[in-house]
Recover the amino acids of this structure.
């Protein structure tokens, strides 16, 4: 019993030092797919996190969607889903962040690589980002909210007719115009 108590204390100490507890695989899959359209969830590929904080394959899917579980080292709850054509772009972003590059440096490096043709960027693809509040009692995610990002590289306000900021609540607008990461943002009004 003494050894079990010592091991439990050591485990709790390790968790408090890392500041994160990685949920089990099934929970990560169940919550990651909340970002995907409902009819795409069961067959989606799911990426999640191991105890070291690295992204790992949790489930290989058979459709065109990739879902990413909530990162336990970040505050709040946020999951994402995107068309598989975005995977090289997303993977490269994760690699650059792991190398220690900040957001601007990641943006600039991917801009350079897309322009050089060394990083594949689809001409159109959608990313879904879903946030919510974990319910400690039920294990469910409450107050889900999804925003939509439709990538259209190098598009501008002039080429799309989209304004550079939302003209009304929930209205689409273009962000990062004229760059590899140009995209239409759609933030539905929150309930």
């Amino acid at each position: 019993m003494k050894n079990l108590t010592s091991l439990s204390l050591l485990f709790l100490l390790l968790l408090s030092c890392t500041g994160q507890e990685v949920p089990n695989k099934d929970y990560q899959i169940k919550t990651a797919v909340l970002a995907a359209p409902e009819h795409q969830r069961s067959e989606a590929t799911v990426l999640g996190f191991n105890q070291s904080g690295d992204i790992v394959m949790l489930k290989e899917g058979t459709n065109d969607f990739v879902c990413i579980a909530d990162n336990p080292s970040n505050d709040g709850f946020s999951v994402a889903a995107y068309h598989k054509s975005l995977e090289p772009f997303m993977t490269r972003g994760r690699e650059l962040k792991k190398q220690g590059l900040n957001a601007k440096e990641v943006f600039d490096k991917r801009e350079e690589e897309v322009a050089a043709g060394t990083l594949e960027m689809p001409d159109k693809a959608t990313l879904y980002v879903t946030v919510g509040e974990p319910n400690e009692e039920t294990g469910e995610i409450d107050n889900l909210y999804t925003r939509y990002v439709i990538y259209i590289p190098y598009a501008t306000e002039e080429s799309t007719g989209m304004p550079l900021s939302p003209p009304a609540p929930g209205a689409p607008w273009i962000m990062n115009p004229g760059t590899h990461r140009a995209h239409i943002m759609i933030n539905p009004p929150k309930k």
Summary: Confidence is low (pLDDT under 50) at residues 1-19.
